[in-house]
Design brief:
The protein is of the alpha+beta class. It has two domains: 2-120, Beta-Lactamase; 141-176, no CATH class. Helix content is 31%, strand content 37%. The protein has a five-stranded antiparallel β-sheet with strand order 2-1-5-4-3. Strands 6-7-8 form a three-stranded antiparallel β-sheet, with no helix packed on it. The protein is elongated and about 65 Å long. It starts with a helix and ends with a strand.
């Protein structure tokens, strides 16, 4: 079991962080190093709040209060700052760590970078919106009207062609002119 946990913690696809109840980092996985750029030696002992952009730091306190109450936080999407100053959109799961008496003594958090996933979802949504706008702004159908003349220049028939957006649904209607 211990080897399985160590293998999970060493995974570069998932960042696993540990903090004490005050939010000071106590553990930092290889995945955390890959995601954020800092080594464990650089961050152990520093406040986890340093990973959050300044405008989002208040949300950490809300999460911390939830955890102090013994509840977990799952699927929280937020931004975190990397060592190089760029931000990553991450999905975070937070679980309280309890001692033998059940008291919360820390927090285990799992961070997954969802930046690329969100970029793809946003691009798909934009493409869908462009398609929807195109379909909603075009007329539902186009009518082609042809006037057919006989060889002496008198109107012989009017041809009305209903052309749907999909060519398989074309309807042609011939209206005969009786001539005056």
């Amino acid at each position: 079991m211990r080897q399985t946990l160590e293998a999970i913690a060493a995974s570069e696809g998932t960042a696993i962080l540990g903090t004490d109840v005050d939010g000071v980092l106590t553990s930092w996985s290889a995945g955390a190093e890959a995601l954020y750029g800092w080594t464990a030696a650089e961050v152990i002992g520093t406040p986890v709040v340093a990973l959050a952009p300044p405008e989002l730091r208040g949300t950490l306190e809300v999460a911390r209060e939830t955890l102090r109450g013994g509840d977990s936080v799952h699927g929280w999407e937020t931004e975190r700052v990397r060592k190089d100053g760029t931000t990553a959109l991450v999905r975070v799961d937070l679980t309280p760590i309890r001692d033998e008496s059940g008291a919360v003594v820390g927090v285990a958090s799992v961070h997954r970078d969802v930046s690329e996933q969100r970029r793809v979802e946003d691009a798909l949504r934009a493409a869908e919106e462009r398609y929807r706008t195109l379909v909603e702004t075009l007329p539902l159908a186009t009518y082609l009207v042809s006037l057919l003349y006989c060889h002496v220049g008198t109107l012989a028939a009017v041809q009305i062609v209903y052309v749907d957006l999909w060519p398989v649904f074309q309807i042609t209607e011939m209206v005969r002119h009786t001539g005056d």
